[in-house]
Amino acid sequence: MKTKEDFIERVVYTEEEIAERVKVLSAKISEDYKDISKPLLTVGILNGAVMFYTDVVRRLTIPVHFDFLIASSYDANTQTSGKVNILKNIDNDPKGRDILLIEDIIDSGTTMNYLINYFKDKGATSVKTCTLLNKPSRRKVEVPVDYCGFEVPDEFIVGYGLDFAQHYRNLPYLGILKRSVYSK
Ligand code: IMP
Ligand code: MG
What is the pTM of this model? Predict the structure, then answer.
């Protein structure tokens, strides 16, 4: 069996560090939305955001509704394709709702930019973004990052929901993937 040393270069954030940061973000979100009239529509972007999503929403003290979508802009490799498709849309009508998009990582910004415009066009009252990781050095389109867990350098990160070709999502920490894993 392979051990984590076979594919992880180093751990960047431990389980404990992630939990501490999530507490801060959830408190801030609860404060910012404390006066909303309808429950906050929290939209988790599957599959990557699933762990972050459940950890953030469970600590919110405001009324929330759950929803999820699947968008594809990324191929099995580490380069974004630039085109976004919604493979599974949300179940709620976005019209007149305050939407919080919860994502694993904002990289080129292509996915978030597309989704923000998509929900604004559908008549959402507001659309804000909450991302576990932000990689500003890779940005191709500007996107507002309203809530961010951690800013990371241009390295490929896996764990706590983030994958490489669907692997490593279940690692409880965030780690840099060894280049030898994907540059074969
Ligand atoms: P963007 O549209 O380029 O911002 O890409 C966002 C998506 O790319 C994320 O939801 C991830 O699925 C994927 N992604 C970008 N960088 C990484 C990374 O370092 N590790 C894992 N997935 C990544
Ligand atoms: Mg993703």
Answer: 0.94
